[in-house]
Queue: 2 jobs
Job 1
Amino acid sequence: MSARVITVRRDVQAAARSSAAEFRLRCTERGTLVVNVLSSPGAGKTSLLAATARFWSARENAPRMAVLVGDLATDRDARRLAPWTPVVQMTTGGACHLELPLVERAMAALGDFDGEFLFIENVGNLVCPASHDLGEHLRVLLLSTTEGDDKPAKYPKAFRTSQALVVSKLDLLPYVPFSVQAAAADAHEIQPDLAVLPLSALNGQGIDEWCRYLETTRTSILGQSNAE
Amino acid sequence: MMHEASLVKSLLEQVDRLAAEHAAVAVEEVRVRIGPLSGVEPMLVSLAFERLAPAGANLVVEEVPLTARCRDCCKLFELKQFRFHCSYCESSDVDVIEGDVFMLESITIRRVEPLEAVP
């Protein structure tokens, strides 16, 4: 018997990444932009998505959306969203993040969804979800004004892998020691191209800019890949 | 722990497949590289490996620094404090080239030598 070293030098998540790329391509072909929404618990992911659905439902020819919502144990977020948008609950049974097979199963439960936006509301956690590609085109990170503006450097992977930073709960800004500029500057040290969108889902401030950002981004990402 | 356990499970599936492809009778060592942005904690990876790996397999974790290449001046440098700027020219147009993935570097297997080398 002899020992032999086999050099592999491969990303442990390579297979998961390529499945995610296939899922992304299928969604691109349907014209659906997939948005993975990350934040710590209670930053306002559900409120943002409900506000987005309400904003669009009041408009003619608005984009169609659906939400896949991840939760450890309950269907509370799904029930909050259901009056406004098609929603499928993914209960992770205690797992700290979502993985693609859960998303694909929930997507199947939506039927033949070919709307413009599919939002994946991740489990509230800024650590593990950052490591899992769910086949999204756009990763959005929510940071609420009550969390402190020093968070970006504490969760570098989540910020580095996101394209947009939503600063939520702007209505509380007068009462908390939070600076949107300081948070943005900290985040830009990690991801210089991060778009920063301050808003309040409660009073609606900034929701129009957020929705416009989504529509512009969809056109630039899906328009580009259709042209290729 | 859930997160590291699921990645270690995936790691072990890949190790199994490689071992089978190379007609191994045993896996002696699994060598992985983990950096500051790999998204896994080395100690938790070791604990998950101890629980999930077959007896006799030894895990070696190489901790690597976060390394980037500047797209403007082409120099290689270590990224410190997650400040994504070139340490030579301050450009923010940098590509991370190591330390941001959980990498399976190599495996050491035991195999039965053929009696005669295949020509």
Job 2
Amino acid sequence: MTRKDLGLLLLILVVGVVVAIINPRFLLPINLANTSNLIGLFGILSLGQAFVIITGGIELSVGSLVALLGVLFIDFVAVQNMNWMVALPVILLLGAVIGAIHGWLITRLNLQPFVVTLCGLLIYRGAARFYTADGTAGFAFGQNFPDLEFLTAGRTYGIPNTFIALVIIGAVMWVVMHRSVFGRYLYAIGKNEEAARYSGIRTSRMIMSAYIICGLLTALSAVYFAMYTRSISPASHGQFYELYAIAAAVLGGFSLRGGEGSIVGVLLGTVLLQELQNLVNLLGIPSSLNFAVMGGVILLGVLIDQQWHAIRAQRRLVSAARQVETRAPAEGKVKVAAEGE
Amino acid sequence: MNHSSDIPAPAAPFLSLSGVGKTYPGVVALDGLSLDIRPGEVIGLVGENGAGKSTLMKILGGVVSPDRGTITLDGVEHTSLTVESSIASGIAFVHQELNLFENLDVAANIYLGREPLKAGPLKLVDRDRLREMVKPLLKRVGAHFSADTPVAALSLAEQQMVEIAKALSINARLVIFDEPTSSLPLAETERLLSIVASLKADGISVIFISHRLHEVERVADRVVVLRDGALVGTLAKKDIGHDAMVKLMIGRVLAARTAKPQRKAGAVALRVSGVRTAAYPGRPVDLDIRYGEILGLAGLVGSGRTELARVLFGIDRSYGGRVLQDGREVAIGSARAAVARGIFLVPEDRKRNGILLDLPIAQNITLADLSSLASRFMVSAERETLAAEKQRGRLGIKAPSVSTRTGTLSGGNQQKVVLAKWLSMNPKVMIFDEPTRGIDIGAKNEIYGLMRTLADAGVAILMISSDMEEVIGVSDRIAVMHEGQIAGILEDDAFDQESVLLLAVGRHVR
């Protein structure tokens, strides 16, 4: 855990304590279970987004994709009577294919990630609404899928299975991001794509893989969201979810320029966002202010982080200057000359 | 005017420098230079890279303050100029790299930041007046495009006309051209030279800086030669000649080569046959690089050397021709393919292409060879640190530890990190593009030593360099490039600065 992550954790705890003192219902098992369920749902989405942001890209179509894939999943299972064990891989595959298409457009045809995924946002939303003829997709009365429901909306020892899924996926993704060769390449690409290419890294393939991972995780969370709401009105389902995911990453220390951020960070960012949502509910703040509170906290967080960085950079410069002065004059001179160019 | 002096002075100098000097820590960039510039005079300014031309320009532009000497402008003495006073007194620049905004039109570029405004509180741009102001300027430089043409639609030469028009728009009395023709095709070069002549006819002074000596020969009334920051000679109109300039530019005798090769060059490692690059698609390049030799690739900036390196390393595609490695034709479609074949590039722009400044040293060193340090796709931190430490010791990278951020290192040590990245991977052919740019003398010598060690171990080395001393001191053979083609190859016994320079400027040797 970096110092930044620790700071975020501290913030989460402080906010939690304050909310618990003002309204003890915060600590009720039912409230904690509900909140951690939402953390699980949004966390999986944010993890996918993190892989794209680390390369310096962005994925805006996430919310629409949650709606489209959710509608498809419910239709497959509830209307087409497809076995969910078949429907789930199909949905995951669809998510991966869409991610691959985005990655292909971005790396091979040199389109900007923002543009590609913005078009995706519009297209998938339209497709979802068209698919149900703007109706609501849902399960018929009495339709039950015990295994599926247990996995997606059930609990184990009182802990929502979505949260458990997030912990498992998070652990796997942590290894991928922070310990694997692939993860290292993603950081390198995010920091300096050209230097990475000059080192013989297949940058296009790596970036494409990041979008595929994002598509996969989005598809998985689309299934979870579908089973959570159990009925989907495609015009509004999943709206703004991409922004939740981006916000979680930014709160977690990701730079939208790429190359910076950690899995722990994005998970903590998700936790903080859901905690804030919960806070709005519990403290009797008008729910219309929901987004405003979120926006305000993110802005504040990023601002503090930025200032912190600026101060540290300043301090580093000052100490470096001092070092040059005290070092042997010849070496000091040469260094200044090299930097003066 | 009543001149009592017996030297015929055509006019009083409008700008004169006296004993102007500038010292950077460790380097004397300009060593007490004195120069008079008279109205309507074209001064050719020549010198090798690093002779002090750019420092002089920066002083005239007010970007750099000299630390001694005086600058007299219209009879008023200054110790230094500011950017504002330089512009106000009519000193204008036409740079080698054009500084135009391609997304704006011609008129907007010329008067950027000085737009005529309409009356009223809204400060709207008076577009009609702007166009009227630009028209005569364009006419004066002989431009055939209109004021509202987007700059992106213009050719390089036309863009240069815009730059010149911009210079004239500040009522320039001195226009300084910095390598104005280095990116121009021949016909457009003619056009530029005639503009210089017309400026002169209008009584505007010109300083014409160029490596293309025959152009200097044609336009200059007087040639000033700089070397190592000092003015080493002034040639009057009648004495201006190619050879005279080259002699003055070189001057010193170069130090003996850094280290003798321990072995004779072996078989051809890489044969470049008829390869054409995007910069000069009509000019095929033929070149052999042998195992165990350092082949220097000299030439002027823009002669197509870096482009060749990029093709050989798989960054750019080649436009025809073949590359043979060990006698077999190979397709190098990506940097990855080149790396897999043991062909490595130490790029010219270190910070952009060579290293990741924000990453620790160890991660930079292992970046290209990460898979071999990993087991089952996982990076082993232990093995990574070990491998990086080994390279750090081998190359003498001065840093507290391999987890130090690479960006905090000096240029020389950063370059060693780039080298370390490749050296662990069994290089066959190594291409160094300006390997010692921005690096201090001590680190330079270390890098030369490393290159020689590599060559002695059998690696084929291609060294692109614009530093004459480096090319002559380090290479075993020298290929000289001129406008996209190999103008000549000099063998060990035929090296001298004059031959290299003559080939580089397009003359044949002997």
